[in-house]
Amino acid sequence: ITAAVDAWARGAAALPKPWQPQKPVLPVEGMRNVLITSALPYVNNVPHLGNIIGCVLSADTFARYCRLRNWNTLYVCGTDEYGTATETKAVEEGLTPQEICNKYNAIHTDIYRWFNISFDYFGRTTTPYQTTIAQEIFQRLLTHGFLQQDTVEQLRCEDCQRFLADRFVEGTCPFCSYEEARGDQCDKCGKLINAAELKNPQCKLCRGIPVVKPTQHLFLDLPKLQERLEPWLEQSWATGDWSANARYITRSWIRDGLKPRCITRDLKWGTPVPLDGFRDKVFYVWFDAPIGYLSITANYTDQWERWWKNPQQ
Fold this sequence. Notes:
Blueprint: H1 2-10, E1 33-37, H2 49-68, E2 72-79, H3 84-93, H4 97-114, E3 121-124, H5 128-143, E4 147-157, E5 162-163, E6 169-172, E7 181-182, E8 199-203, E9 211-220, H6 226-239, H7 244-256, E10 261-262, E11 264-265, E12 282-283, H8 285-288, H9 292-300, H10 305-308
Parallel strand pairs: 1-2, 2-3
Antiparallel strand pairs: 4-5, 4-9, 6-7, 6-8, 9-10, 11-12
Helix pairs in contact: 3-4
């Protein structure tokens, strides 16, 4: 309190001069360097106050605080643009997925500008850097033996000549008999669903009746990592600032044993899988989208690795 009173009495003139980083903002030797990423808003709708308050505004407040502390701060965000939700919206509006992304990216950008959110850079995930970095990470996983192939039973619409992503299927929930359940979850009872489990399934595009057929997919071999992950988690829990909820969920996954996780989808709109036998597939958005933080930084500066591969600073 005494120090605060003293600082107040000396006035603003006695404060350290505000740090003015060079453009682009890059880590500086000897300074505290802070990279802030706000959760990437999905591009298929107009942002509302929940989107702003849920991630963008809180990250913006922290970014402003860091700059006031004269910490060298980079704050990036962007629209998440690949996946089924974009394809669904494109069908609804009679546009191509790229046109949907262009339309709503511009709307998002304008709204955040109106709210005066202090992004250093607001980008998007449909860029050449996204493809390059995602495919490079995939190739390294493949080289180091962290991928496996498996057959998945999936619904296929013979009229549309395509395997149907979860959001392109509707039917009766096998748990509560709600007649408009989606292929990924039921909005009435809230339970997660495998699309092949739906009763009376229908293709949302043509209202045809799909059939169950096998298709090959690639999986992250997460069980291979469990032995190395557990001691890392123990150390991180002891030294980091994990929320109680994050600890609880992570412990439950470890307790039940990690399972292989599918990283490919039978879609057109996404980052292509660069492997023979899978070139007609794209990466599942949950594999692809987090890489957007890296690719958005790469679109901001070609020295992006100084932020993402530089633990010393």
